[in-house]
Design goal:
Length: 191
């Protein structure tokens, strides 16, 4: 039996672009039209560190693997109908910092996309929005596994499903989009 916690040091790589956009409260200039405001302020919705480097927040990877466990609904051997979902939700943390990308806030390219104005799929009123667009990325994420029910095989299987079926960022696979897909390039388990 493995000592707890154990760590999975994982190198991840993009398989599709990542789109990012989060809520911001940049002030609107007097008389500024909505399209002009959007074009001027979209970078305020990027995920950046204190040096204005664009980042992939590690919380995205925590949520991605937890959602994959929920999606798989794989039963824990010897525990009846119990699944791994709660074990991944409560039994894993990420101890590495956010993945810093080779972009500054003012150099990241964008994509202009026609989306529902309320952000809900199928909305009848649509507007153009800009999304930060990262075409390729690679990074290392360190997962600490505290739950003894999560074996190395179960962890790796769930992580692969997270990359393929859940993804990260806006318009990701989980939401029916084609973005945010990633794969495992390397995984080392350490005590």
């Amino acid at each position: 039996m493995r000592l707890l916690p154990y760590k999975a040091v994982v190198t991840l790589e993009s398989k599709s672009e990542v789109l990012m956009r989060q809520y911001h409260e940049a002030a609107k200039a007097t008389g500024e039209k909505p399209d002009t405001y959007e074009e001027r302020t979209w970078r305020e919705g990027l995920h950046v560190d204190e040096n204005e480097n664009v980042i992939l927040p590690t919380i995205w990877f925590v949520k991605s693997i937890a959602e994959a466990a929920k999606m798989l609904s794989e039963q824990v051997p010897g525990k009846g109908k119990a699944t791994y979902t709660k074990h991944f939700t409560r039994g894993i943390i990420i101890s590495s910092p956010d993945i810093v990308l080779p972009y500054k806030k003012d150099t990241l390219p964008s994509k202009r996309i026609h989306v529902p104005s309320d952000g809900r799929p199928g909305g009848s009123k649509r507007v153009f929005r800009y999304f930060g667009c990262v075409s390729k990325w690679t990074g290392t994420v360190e997962y600490e596994i505290f739950d003894p029910v999560i074996t190395e095989d179960v962890f790796l299987r769930t992580l692969n499903a997270a990359g393929a079926f859940i993804g990260i960022g806006s318009m990701r696979r989980q939401s029916g989009g084609m973005n945010g897909v990633y794969c495992v390039k390397d995984c080392k388990f350490v005590t």
